[in-house]
């Protein structure tokens, strides 16, 4: 089973790629911008690597001819200035379209696309993007659908909630809370009343491993799974948990940072594990 992974050098990919290899998913090709970064991250793993900075990368994808594509690569920003708009369109729409065009010339059976809970401002239901980034993630759905009808592979859309765990160069809420444990000056946070559904990156890796090993059991042409725990926590509740684990208080200035939009995202779909039990 040949698996092409985009975004393999990102936060989730750093955990997912070694996890796949430890669970006998070993024919993996990473499609990345920086070949050297991939080599340094996974020095002891026998990977095929295609760099988008190299000539003829599309032809190389076609020649690899993956059975499965796991498309995790994305560009995130909350900004909407001219430079950010160009990066969002180039990364989240143009690159995805180029990838789909290449994949349409292969024997691919399944295309797994990673979405975000911020595509649903009022929770898991109707699409209502929270920001321009979220809008680009939703906008590409029509393009995926077009290529799916042309190529006859099945499309699995996975909506990821709030991942955490291990080292992340792009800090998230829990990282900032941990940093605030040792802060001499109070760290500005929002009011702390936002509700988020947190999922550990190890559980995400396990999810995708189970999903890929079970694709033959998914007979429909389209599936969407919401990947979270099913339970929401306010930032204040998470703060209490962090304080209990570390045994010291968080030096937080609650309400010191503005909330642009209050997002309350509760999981209402069951995880794929329930389907596959």
UniProtKB/TrEMBL annotation:
<comment type="similarity">
    <text>Belongs to the NAD(P)-dependent epimerase/dehydratase family.</text>
</comment>
<protein>
    <submittedName>
        <fullName>NAD(P)-dependent oxidoreductase</fullName>
    </submittedName>
</protein>
<dbReference type="InterPro" id="IPR036291">
    <property type="entry name" value="NAD(P)-bd_dom_sf"/>
</dbReference>
<dbReference type="InterPro" id="IPR001509">
    <property type="entry name" value="Epimerase_deHydtase"/>
</dbReference>
<feature type="domain" description="NAD-dependent epimerase/dehydratase">
    <location>
        <begin position="3"/>
        <end position="217"/>
    </location>
</feature>
<dbReference type="Pfam" id="PF01370">
    <property type="entry name" value="Epimerase"/>
</dbReference>
